[in-house]
Design brief:
extended, 27 strands, 5-stranded antiparallel beta sheet, 6-stranded antiparallel beta sheet, alpha+beta, about 475 residues
Amino acid sequence: GTGSVADHGRQTRAERAPEEEASSVQPSTDQAVDHSEDDCVVVVTACDGVLPDTEFLEMYFESRKKSGGGDIVKAGTVSSTVLHVQFEDAEVAARVCEREHHVKGVQLALAMFVPEPPADLEPPKTVAVSNLPDGCDDDVVEMYFDSRKRSGGGDVSGFQMSSDGTEAYVTFESADVAAAVCARYHTLFKRELTVRLVTPGQTLRSQQPASEPCLVVSGFGGKVDQERLEMYFENTRKSGGDDIDELVYNEADRSATITFKAPSVMRRVAGRAHTLAGSQLLVEVGCRTTGGGGLSNSACAQSDGTGATGGQFELDKVILLNIPASANEELINFYLKAAFRGRMLNKISIQPYPQNSRALITFPERIDFENLAKYVSMEKLAGADVSIRRVSHSSCLRLRNAADIGADEEFLRFMFKGNMGVDVTVRASSSSVDVEFPSPECAAEALSMEHEARSHVLDLYPIVAGLDYPN
């Protein structure tokens, strides 16, 4: 525990009581360091010997030149080898801890004060589960942690999913079960989960004001009205969608935002290609602030620290739009490399889709999307204004050589179940066969494998929203 300390930062040496003057390393009986400001409190420990006198240490830690410190509110001894110092500024406290300190021949070890939980605080029974697979249903997560055999868990007394469907909160009947679950390694649909304890009183992310995930739909023609759009995205067979909670239709710019009653539906829909009334739809996951605020088609992405975004977007791919007919692949490659000022030497892969004046661009490394978008907005390609869009992860693959193999839907479902242990949905038409996987991660794994059927290697490629595909 912490001892009581005098308000040394507010008294001079002459003003102190004689009994305090006698020994500055004994715990004083005046005011204590205010640990309600824990981010400003530093624990100073003597590594060898005892601490110098407290007054000297105060002046040392108030000297930015000597220690990197600044103004002190209070300082007080816990023992002859431990001192607590409360700074006025949390940044100063953090800065002091980053430096090495030797004072009067004594090496000091500094660390930020970490409060002990109150003795009467109930041990946590709730765990936060993140890095969930895309499209993972609430029931699947709850059943996993309710199973002692699969997760080490047990009886679940409460369960809720965050508003964006990426994190779940599981409350167990027993705190011991919650602790045991956190000590184990967890995977669900071949994705490693992150599980941590949630301390009592901590606000769950699903209870915090948050932006609301939505689908941003654009690219449809005049034949597509609000009613047709709504019926299409509520048709699970045609779009992968389900019951719509709200659809906001913007006739002026031919776009719409859609929220579903089940958040997991959104990523499933975004991973597929969509054609409606002859128009290739561009469908992206976006966010709008709850209560009708702003809309962003990248606000839900997770930053990876490079300026590129992760989460539901590919880090090395973009769609280039409005490409003029005069721009060949060589010119596009030169145009894009110029954006990186010679730093990207490896080849850029360009897959053109001339039927809608677009191209899928794959870079040899992850890119800074914002910087590339800024460059594209300022520089013309063959005299034309072009733009770029992010590429959503796709859970749907198209089989090019289905006719050569002669594989029907049942055969393909059986084959992927045997090869990968996953259930897939196969949609076959007279001209193409599309295979939808449970998640983009499963689809990516399928692409990385070689699948052979009836003496043919399956020719699979991802379907990217916003691109028209030849059959």
